């Protein structure tokens, strides 16, 4: 009797191993290398959230991309966000606080503080931010890539993490980068930044 049971357990090990590999590790500290990896321009590819207010905001956003500029010594990241709502471009610039030990980034907005757990993926051209991973009623997962379109493999890793966190593909919202109305403003800002660098 022991042999069939042992064989059954052994046959499940690959599944258990695959499942554990797909689960996000929230305990990996943020290092300078982590910050360098997320530096630059990123496109908001997909989001799944159980927080109704946030879902509504993402649903109304047609396109969304951002720039991250880390400061290692101050443990801060300059965040520049470009969001398209209907046919209007909205821009916001703020700073994120880096909490290296618990791998979180915090943002202050309208008197409130928002936490995001940074998750670096196997593919360095992508990363994720998880919100409220300990709260099944409010948890969320956002997926970013360095290009507006991703490969099936990149998307698959996002879906694996999503499943492991107890969410479903039906929870996912996908901004439409083709409706981006912020190209002109982005170009203007890049020109201004170039001129500033030339002066200094």
From TrEMBL:
<comment type="similarity">
    <text>Belongs to the calycin superfamily. Lipocalin family.</text>
</comment>
<feature type="signal peptide">
    <location>
        <begin position="1"/>
        <end position="18"/>
    </location>
</feature>
<keyword id="KW-1015">Disulfide bond</keyword>
<keyword id="KW-0011">Acute phase</keyword>
<keyword id="KW-0325">Glycoprotein</keyword>
<keyword id="KW-0813">Transport</keyword>
<dbReference type="InterPro" id="IPR000566">
    <property type="entry name" value="Lipocln_cytosolic_FA-bd_dom"/>
</dbReference>
<dbReference type="InterPro" id="IPR012674">
    <property type="entry name" value="Calycin"/>
</dbReference>
<keyword id="KW-0964">Secreted</keyword>
<protein>
    <recommendedName>
        <fullName>Lipocalin/cytosolic fatty-acid binding domain-containing protein</fullName>
    </recommendedName>
</protein>
<dbReference type="InterPro" id="IPR001500">
    <property type="entry name" value="A1A_glycop"/>
</dbReference>
<keyword id="KW-0732">Signal</keyword>
<feature type="domain" description="Lipocalin/cytosolic fatty-acid binding">
    <location>
        <begin position="39"/>
        <end position="178"/>
    </location>
</feature>
<dbReference type="Pfam" id="PF00061">
    <property type="entry name" value="Lipocalin"/>
</dbReference>
């Amino acid at each position: 009797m022991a042999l069939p049971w042992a064989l059954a357990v052994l046959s499940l090990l690959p599944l258990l191993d695959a499942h554990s590999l797909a689960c996000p590790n929230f305990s990996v500290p943020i290092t300078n290398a982590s910050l360098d990896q997320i530096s630059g321009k990123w496109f908001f590819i997909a989001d799944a959230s159980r927080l109704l207010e946030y879902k509504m905001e993402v649903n109304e956003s047609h396109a969304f991309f951002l720039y991250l500029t880390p400061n290692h010594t101050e443990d801060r990241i300059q965040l520049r966000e470009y969001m398209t709502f209907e046919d209007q471009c909205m821009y916001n610039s703020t700073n994120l606080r880096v909490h290296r030990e618990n791998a979180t980034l915090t943002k202050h907005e309208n008197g409130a503080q928002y936490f995001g757990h940074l998750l670096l993926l196997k593919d360095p051209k992508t990363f994720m931010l998880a919100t409220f991973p300990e709260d099944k009623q409010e948890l969320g997962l956002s997926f970013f890539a360095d290009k507006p379109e991703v490969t099936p493999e990149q998307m698959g890793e996002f879906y694996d993490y999503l499943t492991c966190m107890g969410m479903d593909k039906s929870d996912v919202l996908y901004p439409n980068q083709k409706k981006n109305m912020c190209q002109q403003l982005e170009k203007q800002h890049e020109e201004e930044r170039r001129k500033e660098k030339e002066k200094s």
